[in-house]
Write a structure and sequence with these properties.
Helix content is about 0%, strand content about 55%. By secondary structure, the protein is an all-beta fold.
C-alpha cells in the first residue's frame, strides 16, 4: 500500500532553516506528482510546493524565494528545503502524492518557528 513518511521537522528560530524529507513506497514514485502541504492551528490545509514527475515546480506565494522542493527518484524521496523561516511558517507539514487523481497523505511533521 502507499506509504509516505515525513521527517525533519522541529523547533527553529526565525531566520533559520530546516529540511523536510518524505520517503515514499508502495507506488511508482517517479511518474507521480509530489507535494508538500501545511496546516496551522485553526486554518485550512494549504499547498506549499509541488513538483511534477518531470521536475517542474510550483510554490505558494508566501514561500517563493525561501523554500525549494526537490525529488530524488532513485531514493523515492521528496524534499522541502526551508530557509529564512518565519513564525508564520509554523504548522504541521504533510507530504502528498497524487496517484491517478487520488490524494495520499503522510502523517505530518511539526515545524515550529520561534520569534
Amino acid at each position: 500500500q502507499v506509504q509516505l513518511v515525513e521527517s525533519g521537522g522541529g523547533l527553529v528560530q526565525a531566520g533559520g532553516s530546516l529540511r523536510l524529507s518524505c520517503a515514499a513506497s508502495g507506488f511508482i514514485f517517479s511518474i507521480n506528482p509530489m507535494g508538500w502541504y501545511r496546516q496551522a492551528p485553526g486554518k485550512q490545509r494549504e499547498l506549499v510546493a509541488r513538483v511534477t514527475s518531470t521536475g517542474n515546480t510550483h510554490y505558494a506565494e508566501s514561500v517563493k524565494g525561501r523554500f525549494a522542493i526537490s525529488r530524488d527518484n532513485a531514493k523515492n524521496t521528496v524534499y522541502l528545503q526551508m530557509n529564512s523561516l518565519k513564525p508564520e511558517d509554523t504548522a504541521v507539514y504533510y507530504c502528498n502524492a497524487l496517484i491517478l487523481t487520488r490524494n495520499y497523505w503522510g502523517q505530518g511533521t511539526q515545524v515550529t518557528v520561534s520569534s
